[in-house]
Amino acid sequence: MLEIRKYPDPILRRRARAIRRVDDAVRTLARDMIETMQQAGGAGLAANQVGVLRRLIVLQLPEEDPRVLVNPAITAREGSRQVEEGCLSVPGYTGLLERAVRVKARA
Questions:
Q1: Are 61 and 43 in contact (CB under 8 A)?
Q2: What is the per-residue pLDDT across 6-37, written as a single tens digit (0 to 9) for each?
């Protein structure tokens, strides 16, 4: 399991770099991030949250297998709703946020 960086760790505010090639190191990082996210009871985790400045996220929706997104970018949003959301890097805190009902992304 990887260490999840906690607020106010400066790496959480730094810009991640694109991944140029998916190699064994990236695949291992993705597997380790999925394990870390699941062990921590999260729904998503970004690489910077485990101290790696790369554009990689993992997420797991209820009743689905985990997903890995490399260099993700939102291409479309639909609708709007308020949801209560937490963050593994800010334990014990949740907030009400405005989120899209549906999102399309490319990765």
A1: yes
A2: 999 999 999 999 999 999 999 999 999 999 99
Strands (E), the chain: 44-46, 56-59, 67-70, 73-78, 81-87, 90-99, 102-106
- C-alpha–C-alpha distance, residues 54 and 48, integer Å: 7
Ordered domains of the chain (ranges, CATH): 10-106 (3.90.45.10)
pTM of the entire predicted model: 0.94
- Alpha-carbon span 47 to 29, nearest angstrom: 8
Q: One-letter amino acid identity for 5?
A: R
Contact 77, 105 (CB under 8 A): no
Measured between alpha carbons, how far is 12 from 48 in angstroms, rounded to an integer? 6
